[in-house]
Amino acid sequence: MAAPAAPDRVERIVIENCAIATVDAADTEYASGHVVVAGNRIESVGAGRAPEGLENVVRRIDATGHLATPGLINTHHHFYQWITRGLATDHNLFDWLVALYPTWARIDEPMARAAAQGSLAMMALGGVTTAMDHHYVYPRGSGDLSGAIIGAARDLGVRFTLARGSMDRSEKDGGLPPDFAVETLEGALAATEATVDTYHDASFDAMTQIAVAPCSPFSVSTELMRQGAELARRKGVRLHTHGSETVEEEKFCHELFGMGPTDYFESTGWLGDDVWMAHCVHMNDSDIAAFARTGTGVAHCPSSNARLAAGTARVPDMLAAGVPVGLGVDGTASNESGELHTELRNALLINRLGPHRERALNARQALRLGTYGGAQVLGRAAQTGSLEAGKLADLVLWKLDTLAHSSIADPVIALVFGAAAPVTLSLADGKPVVESGRLVNGDEDAIARATRDEARRLARIAAGA
Asked: What radius of gyration, in Å, describes the C-alpha atoms of the chain?
């Protein structure tokens, strides 16, 4: 193996003449500025042209007409659902799960890989440079699903967190999934620990990390929640699950545990600054205060919540209380677009339907949710989520000089309020993921064919079961 380049020989990419929204602590912006990338780090960000005399510049980009932002960060997803899109379109959460679990219980390794490729490709084309997947369906004999998903992310070149999920409450125990689609308590814990040991990278510039992620209060036992939290903290990794998504979940928790979801989570060790929950739609003032007090994060998934008629999360109140909040696509069986950049707009608009109305969120708050907020939630705010010297070179150039945005003077407002902007370039770890609106490390047509074929195969298997 060749020795790494000496610091003074590191290759540089220079981006100039673009508007820049750094999303740093001061929300610093430049009407026309530069970003210099050295290796996999941001070397400098500022107004005007890049410094003179930079050595080993391998690429110089005139980004006139573009806005540079941090790469988008997805904080909640279920990749496998890519191959069951467009089904059960008029169901609430529980009815939707009942309708789809018999199909999901038949997934196997080739299906999981194809679905991960489709999900990742769609997000990357829309500016995502850090993705995550909460995968919790591990049918017996289905192959190495975690390895397939992680492999797809590595091939595409995005930064990735696999939230290794699990379920041990099946139909016979009052749960929703078929018996053969869940794991035993011991099996789930052992497989999760093995995934952490095999794949988790704790380094500053890690491309792959693992979180411990039992599925939800109504699909796992209390013991799996407790021991899962203990496992995560023993291994030094983060914790993720679904929480307070629907009124039915609230009722379930009161009936089964004698308390609401937040109190239940606290009783099992599931509140803390190493934890983030998906959805958190039905939170009262006490719940929000508990999340703020403990530093527990939230993955806000506005499109999925609307698709399943779950309600609107109290994001403005969470932010005011100091709760870390990021954005999530959620599974593509409840958000068929599969895109995160549209969630910037949807988060802003849907929250304005709530009691705060036009003061609920503004464009820059929405952008922060999709970038720095996501980095906070994934525990990576020191490394990514803003354009600052020393941080990892995860960034996007959005093309804003076309008809779609031509009369919007403010580039951040154009990005958030306007039509979905094309991605001219995205970098993850300083390497191109998207160039001129096309994947660098994947064949979109081949991915489309593979996902279509696997969706049809899954449908045939499920129909014959």
From this structure: 21
